[in-house]
Design a protein that fits this description.
This protein is of the alpha/beta class. The protein is built from twelve helices and 14 strands. The strands form two sheets. It has a twelve-stranded mixed sheet with strand order 3-4-2-1-5-14-13-6-7-10-8-9, sandwiched between helices. Strands 11-12 form a two-stranded antiparallel sheet. β6 and β7 form a beta hairpin. α1 packs across α3, α4 packs across α6 and α8 crosses α9. The radius of gyration is 20 Å and the shape is globular.
Amino acid sequence: MKPIIGITMGDPAGIGPEIAVKALSREEIYNECIPVVIGDYEALKDANRFTNLHLSFREITDVSEATGTYMTVDCINLNLLKQGGWEYKKVSPICGNAAFNYVKKAIELALDNKIHAVVTGPISKEAINLAGYHYAGHTEIFAKFTNTKEYAMMLANNLLKVVHVTTHVSLKKVSELITSERVLKVIRLTDDAMKMLAVEKPRIAVAGLNPHSSENGLFGDEEEKYIIPAIEAAKNEGIDVYGPVSPDTVFVKALSGQYDSVVAMYHDQGHIPVKLTGFKMDADTGSFVEVRGINCTLGLPIIRTSVDHGTAFEKAGEGVANDESLVDAIMMAVKMAKHKFAMK
C-alpha cells in the first residue's frame, strides 16, 4: 500500500508552489506514494506555467479521490487566492493567511487519518504574523493544533541526523532551558525517530554545551549538572547513547560513521553542520546549486517533515528554485509512514 502524503504549498509569494510542481514532475515520487497538494489551484497552475512542466491538475474535495497518477497533480483547493491576487517576492498578510490555513488543513487531515504524513513547503513567519497568527513557525503551529507539549526538531540529510534540545531562542537563554528532563526527552525522541528510519539500534551522541564539554568544569557546569545525568538515565533505559562529546568533534565522528545521530544543544550548533554538508553554492552567482536536507518535528502524534530552507522570495516566480529538499522531505515522510504501517 502506498502512503498518502499531504504536501502543503507554502507561502504563494515564495518558491513553495514552484518546488511543489517540480517535485511532482518526478516519477519516483509516484512510485513511492500518493501525493496530494493542499493549497491553491491558481498558484499551482501559475507555477506550472512559468516552469513549463506541462502537468495536469485535478481539484479534489476528499483525499479518497486522489489517484496518484504520474504527471497529474491532485490538489485540495482551499480557494483562498484569486487569479493574479498575490504578488511574488512580497511579504503579505494575504499570502500569510493562505499559508497558515494550508498547514491547519493538513494537520486536520492527518489527525483524521486521511493522510499518512504531512510535508510542509516554506512559509514566511513575518507573513503569518501579519495575518494575525502569532507563531514562531511551523513547529509551534503543529504543536498547538496537535496538543503536543514535548517535541523536538530534527534536521537530516544523507550524511547527518541532528536533533535539537533548544532552537529559536537567544544564546543567552539556552543554558536556562537545558535541564536533565529536557535532554533525556530529546534523547528518547531521537531514539524513536531513528528506529522509524529503520535503524534498529541507534547510536546517539550527545553534544556538550560548552567548549570541550566544559573540560571537567573549567568552562561551565551544565554538562555535570544536567547533560551527564540525562545520558546516564537514557543508558539505564537501554538506549545506546554516548557523551557529552565535545561539540567541535562530535559531527566529525558522526560523519565517520561512529554515531547514527547527534543531539545538539542549540540552533546553530546543529544547523551549521547539516547545512554545510547538505548545501552547495556557486560562488560566482551566489546561488545554491544543491539544497539537500529536511526538517522533521519529533514527538507529534502525526508524521511531519519539511524542507530545510525558507521562502526564497528573491527568486520566486522565476522558475529557478531547487526542489531537492522537498523531494528529500517527501521520501523521508514515505519511509516513516511505511514504518508506522509495519508496526501496526
